[in-house]
What we know:
The protein has 225 residues and is of the alpha/beta class.
Amino acid sequence: xxGRFITFEGGEGAGKSTQIARLREKLVTLGLDVVVxxxxxxxPGAEKIREMLLSGDAKDxxxxxxxxxxAAARADHVDTTIVxxxxxxxxxxxxxxxDSTRVYQGEAGVDPKYLDLLELAAVAGNTPDMTVLIDxxxxxxxxxxxxxxxxxxxxxxxxxxxDDAEVHQRRRRMFLDLANxxxxxFVVIDGTGSADDVEDLIWNxxxxxxxLDAADVSAKAGGNG
Length: 225
Ligand code: T5A
């Protein structure tokens, strides 16, 4: 029994966490075993590295050093969370994965050859079955993030949110280029509509891609529903 691995990518405030929670609800309702996880983080070791990376404590290592830390966190996350979940037949919904390194650390100037090697070592063949790129203009995503910070009082922007608008725009273009190059794996979803609209767009592609007919889902889940 092998599960499904779906990653979500996009810029800051694209709506990934919101949509992962909504997709999870739908899949659970269908009787599937669903694991929601995130990067950087998703395992005890990787969460420690997350703290270093997002606080800016690792910034002095430079983009190449940060890329190595993202890769180290990813390797632990893959080994201790993702692979065991897939092996028991779970659906893994992951908020960011290797494409974020290609885009964020690539945009910061790390040689793509090094990024390929780090990805090879960290992912170890566990390529996502599908990657949902939620695409929004950078100003919309950043606007959502700053509104959320104002509403929750949860501090200021993190290490990567703080970058200039042009950097966020370049990251958006890089994500779209990746999606274009790997069109079989990626689906690009317009994330500018309401959360309900985006949820419908994602559900339509997930349902079609994985042939999620409610009648036979419990069989696919190993009689788990
Ligand atoms: N990073 C990560 C790298 O540089 N390299 C790597 O390899 C990896 C893995 C992670 C940072 O690390 C960088 C990228 C990131 O900068 P994080 O805190 O995990 O940091 O940040 P994000 O993944 O960007 O998470 P965000 O929470 O900022 O964005 P989401 O998850 O896309 O957005 P979400 O769902 O939390 O929504 C944000 C706000 O918008 C609202 C929500 O209610 C929320 O308030 N919202 C909407 N509002 C209107 N319309 C919609 N459709 C909405 N959808 C959500």
